[in-house]
Amino acid sequence: MTFHLPTPPLCTPPLRTLSRRGLILAAPALLLPGCAQAQPAGGTPAQTEGPYYPRAIPADADADLRRVAGLGQVAQGRPLLLAGQVRNLDGAALPGAVVEIWQADHAGIYLHPREGRLVQRDTGFQGYGRVRADAEGRYAFRTIRPGQYPGRTPHIHLRAHPPAGGPALTTQVYFPDEPMNARDGLLRRVAEERRALLLARLSTTDEGQRAGFDIILT
């Protein structure tokens, strides 16, 4: 089974088709409307892994979290295309970097045995995905806008592994239009001038939303 990501703006290279076969896929070349934007200097701030990183990687762990292989249903929730570029501090792309995400479903429920509401989760939502950045360091996931987990603002967990090995960066992606951001303890621990590095760049599409999030590895 294959799926096609939406046509990108003119300032980006053409997209390629992604296949659902295998666990690590080549990500398409993609930036969101507005393309590269000025951001505070320094690497992407690290954040905690949280309690719900998968104990075992799901059999279906590709870039399309909205569909689980073998099931005919589509995940509930607002569709979201999360995409960006992995770069180093000098701005050079890091092709081959592996990017993982894991998140709650539309109701704020994680796919994890420690999740107290596990029986209520959307079984059509994959919950975890990973891709390998393409030759220009770009990655993309088709997912949903996560629901609010109790005590937290909506967010997506992300981990990026450098292509040449070394420590991975674990962080979280936030949405600038969420009112809970101002009260989220983990987000507030980040220096105010660096919080912009954790906020996705949002735009609306025919399917839902695009969220741009570039990853700067130190």
TrEMBL record:
Residues 82-110 form the Intradiol ring-cleavage dioxygenases domain. It holds the Pfam family Dioxygenase_C. InterPro entries: 3_4-PCD, Intradiol_dOase_C, Intradiol_dOase_core, Intradiol_RC_Dioxygenase. Residues 1-38 form the signal peptide. One of its GO terms (molecular function) is dioxygenase activity. The keyword Signal applies. Keywords: Dioxygenase, Oxidoreductase, Signal. Belongs to the intradiol ring-cleavage dioxygenase family. This is Intradiol ring-cleavage dioxygenase. It comes from Falsiroseomonas frigidaquae.
